[in-house]
Design a protein that fits this description.
Blueprint (H helix, E strand, L loop, with lengths): L1 H14 L6 H7 L1 H17 L3 H15 L2 E2 L4 E2 L4 E3 L5 E2 L4 E2 L4 E3 L3 E3 L11 E2 L4 E2 L4 E3 L3 E2 L4 E2 L4 E2 L8 E3 L4 E4 L17 H25 L13 H9 L1
Parallel strand pairs: 1-4, 2-5, 3-6, 4-7, 5-8, 6-9, 7-10, 8-11, 9-12, 10-13, 12-14
Antiparallel strand pairs: 14-15
This protein binds coenzyme A.
The site of coenzyme A has 14 residues, from strand 14 and strand 15.
């Protein structure tokens, strides 16, 4: 239990440069409190204690301004910064190491039943005031810009901004954990290809030289045999 507490405090310290100490995070961070309360509410929800789960959620919402439905699933290292106005719906699934800023909504469009809220991969950033709506899938390490309204799936490592959300960047190779070795540049292969091109050019020049008649006047060789022959002949 204490390990989990320490890990959640350290998550905030690592991701918010404004946080100075564990005490500060523990007592003064609404996002931290909301996530802790949600973990209790979610346990109660899973055991079928729906009223208790809702009660925990309600008091947490009153204290923090962050409304996380007890049915929502949050991964490890979720950080809600500032927090006020964040809403996370019942069937939302949030991956590990996700950062959510104030005013963001992981909600439904009102058209779906059953699974009706988004699924977020790991390492996603959800910008302030953005709305991610419907049972869509947001890939790993996606950045959702502040104020974006996202209604469609977003592939891994993209940045999506605007209303309606459009992909402006990506997929980006971010150095943190990109393991797609097939896409990495191969400097040795590039060098070998450059040498092959050069050889081809030289061969081409040599063939052209052989085909054209020798111009002694322009020949740079002092011991040019053609020039010697010509001089002896005259
Ligand atoms: C989207 C964001 C994550 C940056 O991601 P990025 O991959 O580094 O993207 P860039 O900054 O290179 O921007 C890419 C393009 O999107 C535009 N853009 C960036 N954020 C935008 C936003 N929120 N809304 C609209 N357009 C945006 C940029 O101007 C740029 O446009 P250009 O290519 O025409 O110049 C960041 O701008 C953002 O919105 N972060 C949210 C953080 C937040 O909510 N903070 C609140 C703290 S209190």
């Amino acid at each position: 239990m204490f390990d989990q507490l320490r890990q959640e405090i350290d998550t905030v310290l690592a991701r918010d440069p404004a946080a100075h100490s564990r005490w500060e995070v523990f007592f003064c961070y609404p996002g931290f409190k909301a996530v802790r309360s949600h973990r209790r509410a979610h346990k109660a929800y899973l055991k079928g204690h729906y009223f208790l789960a809702r009660l925990i959620n309600y008091y947490s919402y009153r204290r923090t301004g962050i409304d996380i439905h007890p049915g929502a699933t949050l991964g490890k290292g979720v950080f809600i910064d500032h927090g006020t106005g964040v809403v996370i719906g019942e069937t939302a699934e949030v991956g590990d190491d996700v950062t959510i800023y104030q005013g963001a909504t992981l909600g439904g469009t009102g058209k779906d039943t059953g699974k009706r809220h988004p699924t977020l991969g790991n390492g996603v950033t959800v910008g302030a005031g953005s709305k991610v709506l419907g049972p869509i899938v947001i890939g790993n390490h996606v950045k959702i810009g502040a104020g974006a309204i996202v209604l469609k799936d977003v592939p891994d490592r993209c940045t999506v901004v605007g209303n309606a959300g459009r992909i402006v960047r990506g997929p980006v190779l971010r150095p943190d954990i990109d393991l797609n070795h097939g896409d990495l540049p191969d400097p040795m292969l590039e060098k070998v290809e450059a040498i092959e091109d050069k050889l081809e050019q030289l061969e081409q020049m040599e063939m052209e030289n052989e085909a054209s008649p020798h111009n002694c006047a322009a020949c740079p060789r002092a011991d040019c045999p053609d020039r010697k022959e010509k001089a002896e002949g005259t």
